[in-house]
Write a structure and sequence with these properties.
heterodimer; A: mainly beta; five-stranded mixed sheet; four-stranded antiparallel sheet; elongated; B: 2 domains; three-stranded antiparallel sheet; 20% strand; rod-shaped
């Protein structure tokens, strides 16, 4: 009888979820199981004692001076149908955005630029902006044809462009900031020009 | 021939007493009440098992001891809530169901009707014949 009781209580106790540290990626706004905390370096739920503060890391180095369209870093010249150009970077606290320029060849017609930015959903949400060089970039948030890994957010941009130089920006859209506690993020941007 | 009265009605000769236990019988109401309590206990316990299994399923779905590659989100929170809710329900159902079953058993024991003791008296009557020959021997029981 005693054994039966012990088994019954043991089986009941087993009905409480047990989530070990390091098993889940942080959800939106650093969401983690109750007793775990989001590690801001790996974006994985860990025990609070081993959760690190945010850092861009070696894979997502923030290039200084690309925070404005006028000082954007170049992605190069794109043919009418280009290869996908990728960059990884970071928006640490206080960084309002990163901007890149690219040039579309003069002889292209019916050209579109397709770009996407992939980032951890644990921190602030990022979107893409586009403008012809010298103009003010505007946010374009197109429906994405691709999905990121679980725990990654993807924002996309698909817009017609003509020959000339353009500026594309990665900026926070002001959401997913954990009440201003996680106004930072790492990202990977991919840009391609296609002819339709 | 005149039969003497004593010979006509001879006193039975007492042989021995047989003592038997007559078990008491439960009333229909008693059976219904105890049966109802036991049935309720069984039903509540079955509900407890259902919630227990539901809690276990939800718990297994969200529990992890190795990297899952999944993001912690609303679905996982809903599973945790479901596991905890069903666990609480199972615990309450087991408690109530168990109490009802134990109560039914206790009631069955404590309301058991008492058995009665009955004594069967046996005897033999020998009746002389009222004619030429023979006789009658009869056995009697009284209780």
């Amino acid at each position: 009888m005693r054994t039966v009781c012990v088994l019954a209580f043991t089986s009941l106790a087993a009905c409480s979820p047990e989530v070990a540290p390091g098993t889940y990626v942080c959800g939106p706004e650093e969401l983690c199981p109750d007793d775990l905390k989001c590690d801001r370096v790996t974006a994985i739920c860990e025990v609070p004692a081993s959760a690190n503060e945010f850092a861009c890391g070696d894979m997502h180095v923030d290039v200084p001076g690309d925070d404005a369209p006028a000082t954007a870093q170049s992605l190069g010249d794109f043919a009418c149908v280009s290869l996908v150009t990728e960059r990884r970077s970071c928006l640490p606290v206080g960084d309002s955005g990163d901007f890149y320029t690219f040039k579309v060849a003069d002889n292209c017609t019916s050209v579109h630029v397709q770009a996407s930015v992939v980032y951890p959903i644990a921190f602030e949400r990022l979107v893409l902006q586009l403008a012809k060089q010298g103009e003010t970039p505007v946010t374009i948030d197109t429906k994405c044809n691709r999905t990121g890994a679980d725990g990654d957010g993807v924002s996309c941009l698909d817009a017609p462009v003509g020959p000339g130089t353009y500026v594309i920006g990665v900026v926070p859209d002001g959401t997913g900031t954990c009440d201003n506690e996680c106004r930072f993020n790492r990202y990977g941007i991919s840009v391609q020009v296609t002819t339709q | 021939m005149v039969i003497p009265p004593a010979a006509a009605q001879p006193a039975p000769r007492h042989m021995r007493d047989i003592t038997i236990e007559v078990p008491g019988e439960r009333s229909r109401n008693n059976k219904l009440v105890i049966g109802g309590v036991a049935a309720a206990g069984a039903i509540v316990s079955v509900l407890g098992v259902y919630w227990h299994l539901d809690s276990r399923d939800a718990s297994n779905e969200v529990s992890a001891d190795a990297f899952t590659g999944k993001a912690w989100g609303d679905d996982e929170i809903a599973l945790v809530d479901r596991a905890e809710r069903s666990k609480t329900r199972a615990t309450v159902a087991y408690s109530i169901g168990g109490a009802l079953l134990i109560g039914a058993v206790a009631a069955w024991i404590f309301t058991a009707p008492k058995s009665e003791t009955a004594i069967i008296r046996t005897g033999v009557i020998v009746t002389p014949p009222d004619h030429g020959g023979g006789g009658v021997v009869s056995k009697m029981w009284s209780f």
